[in-house]
Amino acid sequence: MQLTTAAIAATAPPSTRVRRLRSGFIGSAESAAAAVPPRRWLSGMGRRVLPPAAAVPPFKGTDGTSTGGSAAAGAAGAVHASQTDTQTGLVFQPIGEEVRPLVADLDEQLMNPASEPGCAGTRSMARSGYSVDVEAAFNEQISIELTMSYIYTSMYAFFSRDDVGLPGFAAYFRHNSDEERHHARLLLDYQTQRGGRVKLLPLAAPETEYWHAEKGDALHATELALSLEKLNFTKLRELHTVAQAAGDADATHFIEDYLLHEQSKDVKAAAVLVSQVHRAGRGHGVFHLDRVLSEEYGNKEGVIA
């Protein structure tokens, strides 16, 4: 004997029937339609709640006449269709008076026959509020950093010689050379990031001999290194002044965070080394300090002490 759903519901205890009615298992078509939550759809940046459709939608027969439903249901369907076709919410509208000149400038670059990639007549499309004075100052600082790296490379070669025999000092100056070259790359990358043109200037040939009859080679070279670091710190502050005068907040932020603070620490480190070399004197003291530099910089730079 098979029992229908209605029969099972009739024989079930009242509490069970209530639970099933609440859960939607049994009930009339009207109660089922009321239990269905209203449909939601997204439009633009907002959320719209549509009223529930009629319980019995109209049915259109083959003769073109509609049966079932009501006039109100038909009107509700028309409202739903119109609401579905209409999108509301935030619509992006360009600020014409401010954006139009920028778009026209880009069109002038892109539509110019001479503006092919790699041609000398091209100019950056990313450039925005970048002063020519700041651009020139960055190119000058790039050359300063490369010049310092060039000098430190010469010092590294001098102390690596067998007739000098101070590999720890060689490792120290090689580290300084790499650091200055890294600073030059930072400046170069920022120049291109802002749409500037990098113009490398000629580098003067550095000294190749660092002997000194009175002070000795180690003290002479470290004093020269300290003088270079202090000069570079001055040049970076001048670069910061140029960017600040141009009102370029991004350039001043870059100089402060990536260059100025690090350079002040480099000046302190170079000054400490000069004091240590001066205290050590010439001879065995310099040899001992060279061993200390080998432990600190030799393994990092691959220079065998």
Automatic annotation (TrEMBL):
Catalytic activity from the UniProt record: 4 Fe(2+) + O2 + 4 H(+) = 4 Fe(3+) + 2 H2O
GO biological process: intracellular iron ion homeostasis; iron ion transport
Entry keyword annotation includes Iron: yes
Amino-acid positions noted as binding Fe cation in the UniProt annotation, renumbered to this chain: 145, 180, 183, 229, 263
GO molecular function list: ferric iron binding; ferrous iron binding; ferroxidase activity
Transmembrane segments: none
Keyword set includes Transmembrane helix: no
Annotated InterPro entries: Ferritin, Ferritin-like, Ferritin-like_diiron, Ferritin-like_SF, Ferritin_DPS_dom
UniProtKB keywords: Iron, Iron storage, Metal-binding, Oxidoreductase
Documented EC number(s): 1.16.3.1
Domain spans labelled Ferritin-like diiron: 128-281
Entry's Gene Ontology cellular component terms: cytoplasm
Subunit structure: Oligomer of 24 subunits. There are two types of subunits: L (light) chain and H (heavy) chain. The major chain can be light or heavy, depending on the species and tissue type. The functional molecule forms a roughly spherical shell with a diameter of 12 nm and contains a central cavity into which the insoluble mineral iron core is deposited.
Family recorded in the similarity comment: Belongs to the ferritin family.
Function: Stores iron in a soluble, non-toxic, readily available form. Important for iron homeostasis. Has ferroxidase activity. Iron is taken up in the ferrous form and deposited as ferric hydroxides after oxidation. Stores iron in a soluble, non-toxic, readily available form. Important for iron homeostasis. Iron is taken up in the ferrous form and deposited as ferric hydroxides after oxidation.
Protein name: Ferritin
Gene name in the database record: FER2
